[in-house]
Amino acid sequence: MIKTAVIGYGLSAKTFHLPFIKRQAELDLRAISSSQPELQLDYPDIQHFQHGDELIRKSDAELVVITSPNDSHYPLAKQALLCGKHVLVEKPFVLTEAQGKELYALANSQQRQLIVYHNRRFDGDFLTLKQLLRSGDLGTIRYFESHFDRFRPVPRSRWREQQGAGSGILYDLGPHLIDQAIALFGAPEALTARCRALRQGSETVDYFHLMLHYGDKEVVLHSSPFCALPTTRFILQGDLGSYHKTGLDPQEDALRAGQIPEGANWGQEPETMYGVLAKADGVETYPSVAGNYQQFYQEVVQALTIGKSNLVSAGEALLTIKLIELALQSQQQGTTVLLS
Fold it and tell me: Residue 207 sits in which domain range?
């Protein structure tokens, strides 16, 4: 059993981590840190700490899962590694590429695992994209578009939407879209970006449109807070056909509704949400693969117990943060930025 502790008790911990930690037989949940009063009622039989640094110093956890605000990821991960603990950190991994490089060097010197939680590699629609690419049905891919849009025209009073380091939609949803693009196509040659605060009264970036330039294709990553219609999720175009998908993977909504992530139908979309595959000989519905966030934690356990390589490599995790930094640079300079 791997003694496990969680820093933070907000949406991320409650929705994307604790339901899966509790169902992973090899993980033994020992402690949570938070000032939320309901923590005592929800988890009466484990250790409680007010602050993450206290949990790191005083708990016997071997694995620390960091779900606290973005600007705390780097100092807490560094402290946990220095204390000889494995670390799983929510996206965004860190705020700068330099911070990430330092943490990976520290993890190597401490002989500990440092894992970035890019769980949306196990969205059903993303797994469907990978299946399509393996099949070759679309031929050579020339264009890919990925959206994570919402209808939230009025800013909310929460840290993610308030001015500060690591706040804003580029650091919130951007890592999902960037990581998926990297997993599919690797590093681009250059990037052009618009990252803006479009809502009235917005204190930070609430809209982004990133164009990743590859030698043989173009990739567009987009998020808007003004999308009231069913959102486009993926557009994949090749020289033999194209695929179009609307709607989001159903796992998040199910978890928010309190559903237990298990059973044969977990992560499966209804047929009405399937994407469409179009080729020269016609158009057909393309069934979606079932998503499964539990598999990410299965991969974590294998990394810790048998030394399996991290699902998200250090290079991929660092590249995601680098592209966020370059997107902000592109916006500031009003120009296309080359990757060195």
Answer: 120-292+322-338
